[in-house]
């Protein structure tokens, strides 16, 4: 301020007293403005991150790349903010920014589901290789829907199912039709779709495929490989348990899926020694309290047997249609009692606030429960007290940008509620929820959307990436190793990206 004043004096000589006061006022205003700017930034979720010189250099380069990209879309009159993910996907893929983000280590994917991992194209190609795979090609009924897949023994094929390979070979247009039936796309931001009804149909179509043990093993290996390829080192799956089976052996106990998954992770270690997996036992918000009690008992039993694999418990499904979290109060009390009795902790990872309505109050329960991570939390911004508590309790919101747009909670991505959370200091991580259903693989697309539409910088990207390990359910020792590995990968990425973007 003093220097400014001196310049003023040098330029104009000694001003009159009145003019002098004006200058002081002006400077004070500017000072206050700068202070406010700093104070706002200090409240953000990434305020504690200090960038290295190399990171700052990369930040400047990425800023320029985004600026160029936006200028180019502007020049071409592309209505970037009124297009759905599905519409801009080719644009993302051809962007320079996407290439960089693809090489960025992502840390962990904390929010994904067992039915949403491996892509539809792979699913059809792999399923048809099994001669025992069939597809339902009749109109929907109470039991089956058109395009539903399943494995059946010869002579035990339910009415309405036809052999998948034969159907694909004899009906030229069927492959594309089936492919579309396995995906949920928001073709544009204007047309009407009953998203959750369509969404749940996508899962029903592959529900019978996943428990078939030979297919199960291929499915998860493919899902993990896709993630590892996109530089995701750790995965936590909201996992719906089902008994695996095959035709030689029949049904296997629930534990089999865990030991099989452990074997698949071991297989992954050959190419990705750092790769790790945790399962969050998931049940459904449309079940009654008694059924949830039984589900919790199974979850406790499995956690006791596999404490390093089962990290906690969640309830999924459309929040607008299912029961509230509050509805299960009795279950949460029981959960605490079991923990006291057995010493086994069962942290909750509840989906809460996947909604834009203030009448959905699931977010209130989160601060009262042992729930370290929140699935979605979109309407948290309408509950300021809860937001304050969630910050104080150091809980993390798992944000899934693309999922939120496809399921109709957000249209123009610039208005995603996560921006409010981030600037208010609520910790978040970036997730893909059900990438296979939305027609993509990996985590790069979600990071791209966040970086472009939320005007993020390298500081924010770094914090989001490291949050995904710091708030993971890896145990202390695993976390330490994972952070070390991530640090090395991150520094390597910054160095290479800086070189390439020269
Ligand atoms: Zn989810």
From TrEMBL:
GO terms for biological process: adenosine catabolic process; inosine biosynthetic process; purine ribonucleoside monophosphate biosynthetic process. Residues 199-486 form the Adenosine deaminase domain. It catalyses: adenosine + H2O + H(+) = inosine + NH4(+). Keywords: Hydrolase, Kinase, Metal-binding, Secreted, Signal, Transferase, Zinc. One of its GO terms (cellular component) is extracellular space. GO terms for molecular function: adenosine deaminase activity; kinase activity; metal ion binding. Its cofactor is Zn(2+). It is found in: Secreted. Residues 1-19 form the signal peptide. InterPro entries: A/AMP_deam_AS, A_deaminase_dom, ADGF, Ado/ade_deaminase, Metal_Hydrolase. Gene3D superfamilies: Metal-dependent hydrolases (3.20.20.140). Its main location: secreted. Belongs to the metallo-dependent hydrolases superfamily. Adenosine and AMP deaminases family. ADGF subfamily. This is Adenosine kinase. It comes from Chryseobacterium nakagawai. The lineage of its organism: Bacteria, Pseudomonadati, Bacteroidota, Flavobacteriia, Flavobacteriales.
């Amino acid at each position: 301020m003093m220097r400014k004043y001196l310049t003023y004096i040098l330029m104009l000589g000694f001003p009159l007293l009145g003019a002098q006061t004006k200058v002081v006022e002006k400077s004070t205003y500017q000072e206050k403005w700068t202070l406010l700017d700093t104070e706002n930034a200090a409240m953000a979720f990434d305020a504690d991150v200090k960038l290295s010189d190399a990171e700052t250099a990369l930040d400047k380069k990425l800023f320029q790349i985004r600026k160029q990209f936006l200028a180019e879309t502007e020049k071409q009159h592309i209505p970037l903010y009124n297009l759905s993910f599905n519409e801009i996907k080719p644009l993302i893929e051809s962007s320079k920014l996407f290439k960089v983000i693809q090489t960025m280590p992502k840390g962990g994917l904390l929010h994904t589901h067992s039915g949403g991992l491996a892509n539809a194209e792979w699913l059809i190609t792999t399923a048809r290789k099994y001669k025992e795979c069939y597809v339902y090609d009749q109109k929907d009924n109470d039991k089956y829907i058109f395009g539903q897949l399943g494995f059946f023994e010869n002579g035990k094929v339910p009415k309405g199912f036809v052999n998948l390979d034969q159907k694909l070979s004899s009906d030229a247009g069927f492959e594309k039709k089936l492919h579309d039936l396995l995906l949920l796309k928001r073709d544009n931001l204007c047309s009407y779709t009953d998203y959750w009804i369509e969404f749940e149909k996508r899962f029903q179509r592959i529900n019978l495929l996943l428990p078939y043990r030979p297919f199960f093993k291929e499915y998860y290996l493919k899902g993990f490989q896709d993630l590892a390829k996109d530089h995701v080192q750790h995965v936590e799956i909201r996992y719906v348990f089902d008994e695996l089976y095959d035709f030689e052996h029949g049904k296997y106990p629930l534990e089999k899926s865990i030991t099989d998954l452990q074997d698949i992770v071991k297989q992954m270690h050959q190419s990705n020694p750092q790769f790790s997996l945790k399962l969050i036992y998931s049940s459904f918000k449309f079940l009654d309290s008694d059924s949830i009690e039984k589900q919790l008992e199974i979850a406790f039993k499995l956690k006791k047997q596999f404490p390093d694999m089962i990290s906690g418990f969640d309830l999924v499904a459309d929040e607008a249609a299912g029961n509230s979290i509050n509805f299960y109060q009795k279950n949460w009390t029981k959960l605490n009692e079991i923990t006291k009795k057995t010493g086994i902790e069962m942290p909750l990872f509840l989906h809460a606030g996947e909604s834009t309505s203030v009448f959905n109050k699931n977010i209130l329960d989160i601060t009262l429960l042992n729930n370290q991570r929140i699935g979605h939390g979109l309407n948290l911004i309408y509950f300021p007290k809860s937001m304050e508590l969630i910050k104080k309790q150091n809980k993390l919101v798992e944000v899934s940008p693309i999922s939120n747009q496809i399921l109709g909670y957000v249209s123009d991505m610039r208005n995603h509620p996560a921006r409010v959370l981030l600037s208010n200091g609520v910790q978040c991580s970036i997730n893909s929820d059900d990438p296979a259903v939305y027609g993509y693989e990996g985590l790069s697309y979600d990071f791209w959307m966040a970086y472009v539409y939320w005007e993020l910088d390298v500081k924010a990207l770094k914090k989001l990436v490291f949050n995904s390990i710091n708030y993971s359910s890896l145990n202390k020792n695993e976390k330490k190793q994972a952070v070390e590995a991530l640090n090395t990968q991150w520094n390597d990425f910054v160095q290479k990206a800086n070189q390439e973007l020269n």
